[in-house]
Amino acid sequence: MTITLAFRNLFHDRIRLAVTLVGILFSIVLVAVQLGLYLGARSMIISMIERADGDLWVMAYGTKNFEEGQNVDARVRYAALATPGVAKVVPLIVSFADWRKPQGGSTLVVVIGTDVEDRGLVPWNVVQGDVSGLGAGDAVIIDQSYLGDLGIQGVGDTAEIGGSRVRVTGLTEGIRSFTVSPYVFTTLSRARQLLGMPSDRFTYGLVKLQPGADVESVRAAIKARSPDTEVLTKAEFRQRSLNHWLFATGAGIALIGGAILGLVVGTVIVAQTLYSSTKDHLNEFATLRALGSSSGYIHRVILAQAGLSAVLGYGLGMAIALTIAVLSERTALPILMTPGLAAVLLALTLAMCAVSAVSAIGKVMRIDPAMVFSR
Fold first, then answer.
1. Which residue, among 302, 304, 290, 311, has the nearest Cα to 363 in the 3D structure?
2. Of 82, 109, 122, nearest in space to 183 by CA
3. What are phi and psi of 61, to 5 degrees?
4. At what angle do helices 14-51 and 234-242 cross, to 10 degrees?
5. What is the rounded distance in angstroms from the CA atom of residue 231 to the CA atom of residue 126?
6. What gap in Å lies between CA 317 and CA 269, rounded to an integer?
7. Are 359 and 299 in contact (CB under 8 A)?
8. CA–CA separation, 277 vs 16, rounded Å?
9. What pLDDT, in 10s, does the model give residues 223-233?
10. Whole-prediction pTM value?
11. What is the pLDDT of residues 158-181, one digit of tens each?
């Protein structure tokens, strides 16, 4: 009877139901898009750090994120290699450079230099070509989503970086940069040539530890040998990059703020419609009170009404949000929709509608059952 009564109250006024669902739908879509953008941005910021095969990162002091690292001397690598517990140190070059398009004009790219055989940071999701093709003298691999931005059509096309010709030998899918500057993979020596970097310099040292080695002990030893550098774990460098791009720049705060705004607006709309619906049915609720219905029963009816609204609104909102997420897959900042986010959105929707029902419950609890007999 609880669900039946809640269902009839909800569908009695179709216009009011539509307003309620629109409020929930608007809230769900806004929150889903904002949080999806946040997750998408987060994924792009940490993708290179997550894919790199290293337990520790050796870098110039004060490095804030992956793309903006400064060069360090090769002696840092040899010092790390001489540290007990270190299996290998893979040098990695990361730097911004100008990509000159074949038809004219230029755009900023991020050159990533690493040797495939070292397995430090190898391109993934390769859909055309092969990473072994980077062994060619002028070979580079880029993501296919940036073909238009780079002024090329696909594999085999050429362009220039730093006055030297580069030829696209492979394409990846889904490797995007939060800075919107395309990643360009090449070999270590080729990266130095393109960037005009001396052979005794690199950007990061990816330290792979021997089995059983203590991370903190090795880190302290490397730091003592190279006091002008920083030695971070993968988790620390990941968090530092996230803090810089999402919070120091204000981007993450703006996205989270938009999500909170969506929840507030949705809660207010649903609260108003539930309160109005309850007010229009005061006589019916008064009759239930007069017949001896408990407060708990009436509470359950109103909460069930709110729950039905939440489920219907959530279903419609998620359908729209998923459509937007699919359409954004090939954009510069894709919306990431995960099962975890979908579950969080469902919980938020139910909580939002439950909070909205509080005002309606308060109104019903102040009803005098005697009003039924005065009609």
1. 302
2. 109
3. -65, 130
4. 130
5. 31
6. 15
7. no
8. 8
9. 999 888 999 99
10. 0.79
11. 999 988 999 999 999 989 888 889
